[in-house]
Amino acid sequence: MSETGVTYRDSGVDIDSAQRSLRAVTNAIKDTYTDAVVSGVGGFGGLFKAAFPDMANPILVSSIDGVGTKTKVAAMVGDYSGLGYDIVNHSANDILCQGARPLFFLDYYGCSRLAPEIFEPIVTGMAHACQTIGAALIGGETAEMPGVYHDEEVDVVGAIVGVVDAERKLPRTKVQPGDLVIGIASDGLHTNGFSLARRCLFEVGGLSVRDTAPGTELTLGEVLLKPHRCYVNPLLPLLHEEGIYAIAHITGGGLYDNIPRVLPANLRIQIEKHSWQPPAIFGLIQQLGNVSDAEMYRSFNMGIGMVVLADRFAAPSLVQRLNDAGESAAVIGEVLSGPHDVQIV
Fold this sequence. Notes:
Blueprint: H1 15-30, E1 37-39, E2 47-48, E3 58-66, H2 70-77, H3 83-96, E4 101-111, H4 116-133, E5 136-144, E6 154-165, E7 180-185, H5 194-204, H6 220-224, H7 232-235, E8 244-249, H8 254-258, E9 267-271, H9 280-289, H10 293-299, E10 304-310, H11 315-324, E11 329-337, E12 342-344
Parallel strand pairs: 4-5, 9-12
Antiparallel strand pairs: 1-2, 3-6, 4-6, 7-10, 7-11, 8-10, 9-11
């Protein structure tokens, strides 16, 4: 306690430390600024030019999400560097499902005590992920709240804004029976299902993040912390083509709950689960936790990070172009008439 009485620092909030950490990542943040940024970090609000001369009828698209309990695994491993990529890539994939290109991103970082060795890698990762997709990291909030968050606990949330021309907005209504389902591979769990994964692997299975993951030379911690894959750069250039009708980001709810979000009410999807090989981490989770197939395919992406509903004649070319762009894509199912659901056979 200071001689003048109790200070904010005595209460667990160190404003000076927060300012030092923010200054440490300022250059990385400014590297994301595009020509449309009027002002960014430091003001009471980020300013962005709302001019889209290449679009006849621009529509803004927004989304907000968090990385969830993946932060718990990061704490167990002592590596937080991928969490910034996770939140940006997850958010960008979400608005891609409306056909939108990202414009700018804002973050929320919550903690009990601001630790620079945790904060700075996370925000630097956000900045690098934003720069990769042409988005500006235009602002954010750092909340140091002892008593709300436990010691060493962090929360990472992000909001993104993008834009799409109305005539190119997804999903399109042209999808019909006979069209095909293209699956694009994930890089593991991405940012969903970690509460179930931690329960099965560590509480029930008794494993450690330092144990070797099956079929790899990596530890379980390294496999679980692989950043959420971003599909903006390979997919966005293809969205002007008439052969793509809808895109579904496979996040919480898995294949069962996410595909119907972009599917007309009179159609259903049949997925052939033997058309791809899920990463071994999912089999380990299922085995140790004795988890049913239905629960696995609803809790996890099972190796499919993004689904594209495409014209059956355009699908082979789209698969080839995605693979040429460095993705791992394949036809994994078909659109059928019937109730509005997904069947995995």
